[in-house]
Amino acid sequence: MTQTRIAATSGLDPSIPPEVALFSYYRNAEQHGANLLFRLLRHLETPEAQVALSQHLAEETRHAWLWTERCLRAGHKPLIVDDGYQTRIGRAAGIPRDKVDLLALTVVVEQRALRRYQRHLKSPTVDVDTREVLERVTADEAWHVDWIREEGRRIAAEKGAPERFDDAVRRYRQIDAAVTAELEVAEREQLGAVAVEW
Ligand SMILES: [Fe+2]
Ligand SMILES: [Fe+2]
Question: 65 C-alpha to center of ligand 1: Å?
Answer without folding.
Answer: 10
